[in-house]
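Table S5 (text form). Sequence records supplied for joint modeling of the two-component complex.
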Amino acid sequence: MFLRLIAAAALSLLAAGPGSAQDADAPIQQLLQQHSGIIQDSSRRTIQPAIDAIRDSGLPRAQLVLEKWAAREMWLDEETGLFVHAEEIDRDTLRIFDFATGEEIGEVPDDTYDQLKPNSGIRGLINSALVRFQLSDPDPANRLSALQSLERNGNESHLSVLRDSIDGEPDPAIRARKERIERLLTISFGATADERIAAMEAFRGDLGVDVRAKLNPILTTRTSAGAALPEGVNLARELTPGTDITESEAYELLVSEGLAPARLTPDAQRRTLQDNIVGGMVGGVAVPDLRSPAARDRAYAALVGAGRAEPAATNAEAARAIEDHVFYETYVETDAAVTGAAEDVLTSIEMTVAMNQFLDLSLDALSLASIYFLAAIGLAITFGVMGVINMAHGEFIMMGAYTGYVIQQIIPNYTVSILVAIPVAFAVTFGAGVAMERLVIRWLYSRPLETLLATFGISIALQQIAKNVFGTQARPLTSPGWLDGAWIMNDVVSISYIRIAIFVLALVFLAVFLFIMKKTRLGLETRAVTQNPRMAASMGINPDRVNMLTFGLGSGIAGIAGVAIGLYAKVTSELGSDYIVQSFMTVVVGGVGNIWGTLLGATMIGFLQKGIEWLNPSNTLAAQTYMIVFIIIFIQFRPRGIIALRGRAAGD
Amino acid sequence: MTRRPFILRNPSILIFLALLAIFTAAVTLMSEAFGTAMISTSFVKTLGKTLCLCLVALAMDLVWGYCGILSLGHFAFFGLGGYMIGMWLMYARTEIIVTESLANAAIPPTDQEIVDAIGTQIFGVVGSSDFPPIWAFAHSLPLQLLMVVLVPGLLALVFGWLAFRSRVTGVYLSILTQAMTLALSLYLFQNESGLRGNNGLSGLQNLPGVAASQAVVSVWFLWASALALGLGYLLCAWVVSGKFGSVVRGIRDDEARVRFLGYSVEGYKLFIFTLTAIIAGIAGALYYPQAGIINPGEVAPIASIYLAVWVAIGGRGRLYGAVIGAALVSLISTWFTGGLVPSVPLGFYTIDWVDWWLVLLGLSFVLVTLFAPKGIGGLFDLVSGRFAPDRHGADYGPDKGSLQEEEGRG
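The corresponding structure-token record, covering 1062 residues in total, follows.
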């Protein structure tokens, strides 16, 4: 109790004390007093003169005032009418500072202080006034953030400020950026047409999205109609009804400009007839007869004759009205030289953009191709070399991906876990492949169709087991930090590091495959067993063992592919079945039994799919549909794939 | 020597038809609508659907078991048949609803207004209201019934012509048919396909203009399915009997040899492929009104593979085998996935059959393929004593590569 009394007494002393310590005659305070009314009024419509006055005052404290104001830290002393900035210590107490000196005045209760609360509109105005100060701020970070806000919503007033700040800019990178933004702002707000055109020309062939965002509004057009082409406007083009603009759109334009009467819509006709039912008749036609459009027209014509309905334009009249008028687009921008230059520059930009988009699309296609190649390379061994149809191949990919997921649960470091996951995934799927070959496929070598069915049985069992163990929701397989992000060449062309890694992995696999098949004992024996098992056996090769190892190898590679695919796609139990048909297609299109064929097949399918997607960007499903149809037709012409084996190696 | 009548040469037909008739009569007498109500309407529907699945399995057996074409696309034809009848069912039913609601308007609607309103009703879910061109015949039942036959038939004809002409055989053909199925289902999944994208067609269980309850309608469909199955069985049996059937089986066993004998292998294959596609389409047209809904998921490649699984388990190369396989596996599947089978507690883990049924099916399928390639139908051989020709261990033909007796039995 006692303490509180003392505190209250001390506070009242403080409140009485510091008020007088403030310098009411300082220039900045006087300026604020001058505009005190509108500052307190705090209305977006009237505030501008106050902000301008502070900004243009040239006073060293102007920036501080604007910053504090925008941050809602400016308070008004109701007793003296002076402005201060303050920090709230707790709910009832303020620590106030003098604007003129920046010195702390003291701690006071907030009863007699009124906080100024500029709304977001006013804060926007204050911030844009602050740009002048920020652009020459000694801290480069502040200058950059000011430039950022200029990029988003720069206006006419910023142009001169920006120009003034360029000469004094010490940092070359920021200076270049300032110059670019200056040109961008000049395009929109330049004083003369020549100035604006010069700014546009500087951007010829530039890929930046910001440039296009500035140029496109200049080319905004408005469609209108009239008896003849108007003089003295910036005409974009004349529209021919039927080709540039549909007849009905053209007529609607005429109607909206009051040049022609509205055509009768079926809805309007029905409403009018409905309003004029008299004793079961409308215009001399019985209501039940109105079922046919002809009867409705007759009834409506009768109503018009009786003066109870508006005459509506007939089709012939509408056609004549369209013929009698011209339709044209005018630029909103009035200067033809500016729009001409904008169009010219935009065309040059679009050419460059198109070339870069082609490059980007090619990179996308290449990365898709490497994914297909990765998914198919295991099949190229089991199906291509051994001739075994393994419908569970997709499930081996899935097993590899889940192995990666499980390893990540055990080893938290992403880099280490991926490096561990790759050999473990290989080991797991190698084991699964060997087991499957031993238990099932071995007995079915002479019955390929039944191999297909039996491995399909294994595939549904594996898929369901994965679903039971890991659940139906997608599991994440997180890539290491150094694979995050993308390699950005410019605003159009970029490719993520994961895709590059997958591409590299595909190349590595190709090399490994070639090495094993051409340079190792296992490869030699595999090729021998594939071509003629009896002959190979009589040469001392154990065909059973070779088949087992080869199948295991193919399955193991599928497991590694699973880790790679899991990195960029979600790991679900259906991961494998998403790829199985495409993988078989890749091998079949490329040519069975030839790794280069598989590579070509994957490349072709990847580029084809991206190409179709580019033609019809909204629809990936349609792209896949058309791609499969294309493949079916392709197989008509090259039933044995792009690279067909010839001679004895071709087998059957 | 005079040929005995067709039926007498194939006693299994009589047995099958008699069993089918007894089954249908028994279900009718136990149904809610016409009998003692011992089995629920939904189970009558399940049985009716099973009969349709038997019919499509019959088609699969004809094309795979007799002609050796492992088609992984016949469920796509089945689905297409369903879509075709579904279009009419949906159109006609919406037409009735729309006409009723517009009848209260002050002015009677014109035909165009009715069609527009139907379009808004049907395509509202995919954000459209215009009828795509493929719905041109949807207003007419006879035309749409014709489409049930024509659409799967023409697709099979064109696809088969392309595939057989370029001599795509064996597993390549299987993969190609699977790709066709995948393409079709991906196409149907798009809203732009004009068949309501992944919403599919729904409300098909309501027959437009029929006041009878679902209990009665379900028995009607059971009859229709049984009739279709009986006729389909007769047709398939007739096709595979006689000289034509011998050529078809010859193509299965050694295509090149049949070709060298001067037969047009492609023609025979194309005929069988198209015929079975049509049968599959008809089966689908009977199935989906009982199921009530069809969506692109039904056409997915996996469904066609299950079809092959049924036929393989039932025993391919014999028509009743396909019927047994389809009926058995689909009914057991319904039983297991319906949660009716008690779980097996293992102490550390409880086997819930809803989750583990597919694993069981997959593994038993592998076992059947490995150890009982003749499937369930092979059991009948024990009764009838019908074994493969007994050559006392010699090979079947003069050629060195011809099948040994041991292999031939397998």
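Note: The beta strands of chain B are 201-202, 293-294, 344-345, 350-351.
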